[in-house]
Structure formats: C-alpha cells, structure tokens
Design goal:
Oligomer: single chain
Shape: globular
Largest sheet: none
Distance between the termini: 55 Å
Radius of gyration: 29 Å
Order of helices and strands: HHHHHHHHHHHHHHHHHHHHHHHHHHH
Helix content: over 70%
Length: 489
C-alpha cells in the first residue's frame, strides 16, 4: 500500500488548499518538486500504481530513485504536519492534544510557568468533556511536574488521579464488556443472539454502574450505557424494546440538552437506530419522519458527519419507500447515484445498482433491472463480495433473463454457475439455491417454461419443500414462482 498516494487521495478541497498554503509558507516558486509531486499523484487514478511517469517528470534524466523516495517521504511528513495544524482546534479532543503538545514544547524549554499553564488548560477541557483516559495522563504529568519544579505538592494531583482512576476503572469495565459484544456482532452479520455468558457480563456491568450516584447524571456514562443496551437489544433482535429504549433515551438527551458538537455523532447514531427499528417494526411513516430529522442533524456543525451517514440516509429512505411507494424508491436511488459522497465510496455505488435492480424488478421493469445488474458486475464492489452473495446476484440475473424470455442465455448462466460452484453447492446452506436453479434448468430444457400441469407440479414440490438451512435471497424464489405461474399457496 502506498501511504502517500492514499493520503493524498483522501484530502478534500479545504485540506488541499491548507497544504498548499502550508507548503508555501517559507518559499513559493513554480519549480518546487514536492508540490509538483503532490499535483502529479493527485491526478494519478487510484487504480494506477505505476509511478514511473511521475518519477520521469520530476527527475527526467535520473536512473537512481533514491532522491524520489526521499522526496516522497518528505512530502508525506509535510502533508501530515499540515493536517495536524489544520485540525488542531477542530474538536475538543484535538484541542486537548494541542494543549498537551504546547505543554511538552515549553517543558523542553524549561519554562515551568508556560508548561503548567497549558497543562492546566488541558485538564479543564478534559474535565468538561469528561475524558477520563486523558485526565489520567494529565494528572500523571502534573505529578511529575510538581516533583521536578516543586511549586505544588504532588499529593494534590495524586488524589485527583485516584478519584479519576475509580471512574476510569468502572468505565473500562463497561468498555471491556462492550468490546466482547461488538466483536461477536461483527462476526455474525445476521445479528444472531449473543452468547448468554457475554450478555450476562454486559448486564452485570450496566447494573453495577447504574447503581452508582456519581454516574446517574454523567454524560459519558449515559452515552456508554446507551451503546451497551442498544447493542444488546440489537444482538437479541428485540426491535420493539430497542425502539422504545432508543426513543426514551433520545428524548432525555434532548430535554436535558446533552447533545453538543462534542457528542454529535451519538445523536446521529440514536436517530439511525430509530429509523431502522421503526422500519423493521413496520412503522414506515414514522420512520420517514425520523429520517428527515436525521438528514437535518447531518447538516449541523457544517456537515460534520454528513459523509459518514449519507449512504445510510438514502438506504433507509429506499427501504421504507420500497414498501409504501416503489416509484419513489427509484427516484431516491437515482438521486443517491449522483451524490458525490456515495459515488466516491468504493462500495456504496455498487449497492445502489443492486437496490435499483431490486426496485425495478418489483415494478416488473425487468430490462432496466437487468441493466443495473450488469453495471454491478462491472463495478469494483463485485470483486469484494463473498461467494455466497455473488451466487444470489447471479441467480437474480438468471430470473431476469427468464423474465425477458432469453431462455438460452439463462440456461448457459445456470450451467456456468453450477460448474463454478460445485463445492459450494454441496453445503446444506445452499441446498435451496441449488434446487431452485436445477428446477429452472429442467423447466427451460423440458417445458420451455410453459404453464403446463407438469411445470406446476414441479414448482409446487419445490415451494412446499422444507430446508434445514434457508439462506436469504435477493428475490423470494417461492413468491416469484407462485406469482409467475398463478399458483395458489
């Protein structure tokens, strides 16, 4: 991985302007190799790892690349410095780090007063946002400072650190429980129930913390408690309780004015939970109302987390409109397809094509649905998808080929899919998928997909068969077959 190239590709317009200003702060001319390298790498496509032309443009007559590599290292250092300078006061956490950096600078200069001034400022700011981990570091530095210069008794800061540590230990206990839950959730994309032992650990940690008065009005604790309970309810697929708990917590945070720029992301997380749980609980109109609240919140603080949530915003809109207004769902997907934050993401645009294919399929516009499947094949997302999901997509294309009466090509796709996934189809998890495409193969070869008694008999047998493991599919096989052949359930 080329760290310099990746760093440059991630810079937005403001960050690029800031780097240029930073780079030209001491000298400005048109022959600077570092600025030239920056511009050349910025123009180089992300997929192009060949820097041979870039090297030749900067050192046209050179054979040894040592100077080029030194230039790259120097440029990376300068870009990182410009980013640190640009964001040093952008958030409360960055502000504290900046104060600590100044403390270290003046400590190195043996100026106790200025060092202590910035360390004290760091303490005040950490107390405001209740960053106990940072306070632990600050109190340790204050103890060392008092020993070195003797202006204040170390016992003052030792007591502060002890009081802070008791809070930190409790918070870390919850963090440890959360880490276990999150790890298990990430291992299981279907959010299956978490092991009882893990749930008990989490519940015990929550009850223990909630019983302590010092944490009852503590914003850090309230936030961590929400994260813990919401993830636990999600892991248990208890969406009714998750909706009620999230709504109650969100209203409490609003009423007590807990939300600020410092914890703005937790506001977005709560709204995201509400949007999703309301959708799952089939409260589509109410879900749409909270989606609008989410969209407004995404624009707060100069679009602070807009890019992080824009795909989720469009996705939840589509989920709801797919149920209550399929035409509107397509309008939303086409709008999302033009959003820069989505088009620049390596996977989001691919999912847009997949959702468009599904939406057009529901509207029986099969040719347009097929076009979006083809676009998905050509998108970089497709290569990152696991085998099981690729099979679902291929089966969706086969169904679309049948809907457009391209039976010969559908048959070729089935034969190719079976040949390439022989081992996969031996698994019980894919028994239903294999039986489905085998059924389609028979219907095409023997009955030319007509609606004869033989055809309906085969379909009825498949639809009423019970499978020990039924993996999800993009198109519901039974529903499609029953509707297509006018069968009764």
């Amino acid at each position: 991985m080329d760290i310099l190239k990746n760093t440059i590709d991630l810079l937005d317009k403001e960050e690029i302007i800031n780097y240029k200003l930073y780079a030209n702060r001491t000298q400005s001319n048109n022959n600077r190799k570092d600025v030239l390298l920056f511009d050349l790498l910025k123009k180089l496509p992300e997929s192009n790892n060949d820097e041979g032309k870039v090297f030749q443009k900067i050192y046209p007559h050179a054979q040894d690349k040592n100077n080029y590599y030194r230039l790259k290292n120097r440029l990376l250092v300068e870009i990182n410095k410009s980013l640190v300078q640009f964001y040093c006061y952008d958030s409360d956490s960055h502000d504290i780090y900046s104060e600590l950096s100044l403390y270290k600078i003046f400590l190195k200069k043996n100026n106790f007063e200025l060092a202590n001034y910035h360390l004290s400022r760091a303490e005040k700011k950490a107390l405001i946002i209740q960053d106990f981990s940072m306070l632990d570091l600050i109190y340790t530095e204050q103890i060392n400072l008092s020993i070195q210069f003797g202006e204040s008794a170390p016992i003052i800061f030792i007591k502060k650190r002890e009081q802070n540590q008791s809070k930190l230990i409790e918070i870390r206990a919850l963090d440890d429980s959360l880490a276990t839950i999150i790890y298990e959730l990430k291992r299981n994309q279907n959010f299956s129930k978490t092991k009882n032992q893990t749930s008990q650990i989490l519940k015990k940690a929550i009850l223990n913390l909630n019983s302590k008065k010092e944490f009852q009005n503590n914003l850090v604790f309230k936030t961590k408690l929400f994260n813990a309970i919401s993830r636990l309810l999600l892991s248990q697929q208890d969406y009714v309780s998750l909706e009620s708990y999230t709504l109650t917590t969100y209203q409490e945070f609003i009423h007590k004015k807990y939300f600020s720029k410092a914890n703005h992301e937790i506001k977005l997380q709560m709204l995201a939970y509400l949007c999703n749980t309301l959708f799952v609980n089939k409260k589509h109109i109410l879900s749409l109302e909270y989606i609008e609240q989410l969209h407004l919140a995404m624009k707060e603080f100069k679009n602070l987390f807009y890019d992080n949530y824009v795909f989720f915003y469009y996705n939840t809109l589509v989920n709801n409109y797919s149920v209550i207004d399929p035409d509107k769902a397509i309008d939303v997907l086409n709008e999302a397809k033009e959003n820069k934050a989505i088009t620049s993401h390596p996977t989001h645009l691919g999912y847009i094509y997949l959702n468009l294919a599904g939406a057009y399929f529901d509207l029986k516009q099969h040719k347009i649905a097929l076009k979006n499947i083809i676009k998905l094949y050509n998108h970089k997302l497709f290569n990152t998808i696991d085998t099981s999901f690729k099979i679902k997509i291929h089966i969706t294309e086969i169904i679309l080929r049948i809907e457009t009466t391209d039976y010969d090509y559908a048959l070729k796709l089935i034969e190719s899919l079976i040949k390439l996934n022989k081992t996969t189809f031996l698994s019980k998890a894919y028994k239903r998928d294999f039986d489905f495409i085998s059924l389609l193969q028979v219907l095409i070869k023997k009955y030319d997909f007509d609606k004869s008694k033989e055809t309906k008999a085969l379909i009825n047998t498949f639809c009423h068969k019970t499978y020990p493991q039924m993996s999800s599919s993009i198109v519901d096989y039974n529903e499609w077959l029953i509707e297509k052949f006018n069968l009764s359930t």
